[in-house]
Design brief:
Order of helices and strands: HEHEHEHEEHEEHHHEHHEHHHHHHH
Number of domains: 2
CATH architecture of the largest domain: Alpha-Beta Complex
Structural class: alpha/beta
Strand content: 5-15%
CATH class of the largest domain: Alpha Beta
Distance between the termini: 53 Å
């Protein structure tokens, strides 16, 4: 694979992790950059690569960011692209190193390398339906203020067989929820819990670069989707445009049914209060360095309440009896329903499972010494 640059010098651009990115100011060219992250994906990458390549045309771009694969992933990429020559789109391959960057950092590296005004995220083990790129072009062509576009995904098994339901089915997102996501309450809905896997997402490239990489423990896709919703720039469709493969090597997979999702979250998930408070504190702080539109200023009120609620959860007493009354009161007042997708079930979980373990206490002792700086919510004067 060391000779990859020479092999494709006429058809492909081979760049490294230090490439300066180009900031685009317009979407008039209607071209997309597909950012695919790979790591030991030899098992499925060929099918995904073929499904993407068939949809790209002149001026489009495929960026493959490898995170140090030790299997035949890049050899397969090399073989498939060589067999497809001549290709009408640009290809950039970012080689990995012996030290893994992790999925979020690797996707950010791919975004930095993208040269077109719209980025479509791609995992290595899925496959795209034939109209995905065209639908992305249509949406970003119609809405110049669009920051992010997300679709539904058909769940398939490791052999590619349809499992009979979709990602939205598995997390309880129907037509009503999609209407909420596309409305003024979209940020509030998404802040209660992410329902949009990154591999269903397409983003305005400039917007991602303004936001920057996801900090701390934030998943990159949730960080970017939340920012888009914060600025009322998120569009979600119930169209199925991706095959979302479920197998034993998934980094993140979808539960097969909504009932299974509830059971898994209730019995296996430890308390996430400390992490959620830290994450939404980071989101709050990020807003201070960003120019806010009217929608963002409106959503900051909910964000303030959300992070305060997660802080309260993390400070619950370690003994179950002492947690019972405070949590039941919050359930009765509707706080759990307002700030968590699981509503009262999250409250019951907080009673049964101790939200304040040593890790959570450590997190919160750090936050208590951090100065809380409130962003300016007053209307801006242009």
């Amino acid at each position: 694979m060391l000779g990859l640059n020479a092999k494709f010098c006429a058809q492909m651009s081979y760049i490294n992790s230090h490439k300066d990115f180009i900031v685009l100011s317009t979407r008039s060219n209607n071209r997309v950059s597909v950012v695919m992250c790979t790591y030991n994906g030899a098992r499925f990458v060929e099918e995904q690569l073929r499904s993407i390549s068939l949809q790209l045309s002149h001026g489009d771009e495929l960026v493959i960011a490898d995170d140090g694969s030790t299997d035949e992933t890049l050899d397969i990429v090399d073989r498939i692209l060589r067999a497809s020559l001549p290709i009408d789109f640009d290809v950039s391959i970012l080689p990995g190193s012996t030290k893994s960057r992790g999925i979020s950092a690797n996707f950010w590296r791919g975004v930095q390398a993208a040269n077109n005004s719209v980025v479509i995220l791609s995992d290595q083990d899925d496959s795209w339906l034939a109209n995905r790129v065209e639908r992305v072009r249509q949406e970003f062509g119609k809405h110049m203020g669009l920051k992010a576009f997300a679709c539904d995904a058909r769940l398939i098994d490791k052999y590619g067989a349809n499992l009979g339901h979709t990602q939205f089915d598995s997390v309880g997102v129907g037509a009503g929820e999609i209407q909420v996501l596309n409305g003024q309450a979209g940020f509030e809905y998404l802040a209660r819990g992410n329902v949009l896997p990154g591999m269903t997402g397409a983003f305005d490239t400039n917007f991602l670069r303004e936001i920057g990489p996801a900090p701390g423990s934030w998943p990159h896709d949730y960080w970017w989707f939340l920012h888009a919703a914060m600025f009322d720039g998120l569009e979600v469709t119930n169209e199925t445009l991706v095959n979302y493969r479920q197998h034993d090597s998934n980094t993140i997979g979808a539960p097969p049914t909504r009932l299974a999702a509830l059971a898994i979250r209730f019995w296996k998930t430890p308390s996430n209060a400390a992490v959620l408070h830290e994450n939404f504190q980071q989101l709050w702080e990020a807003c201070q360095s960003t120019e806010l539109n009217e929608s963002a200023r409106r959503n900051l009120g909910f964000l303030r309440e959300k992070k305060a609620f997660e802080r309260w959860r993390g400070q619950l007493r370690p003994h179950m009896v002492s947690r019972l009354i405070p949590v039941l009161k919050r359930i009765a007042f509707g706080d759990y329903r307002r700030f968590s997708r699981r509503g009262g079930l999250r409250g019951i979980h907080d009673i049964v499972r101790n939200p304040q373990d040593q890790r959570a206490t450590k997190h919160f002792s750090a936050f208590e010494t951090r100065p809380a700086v409130e962003p300016d919510l007053s209307p801006r004067k242009d």
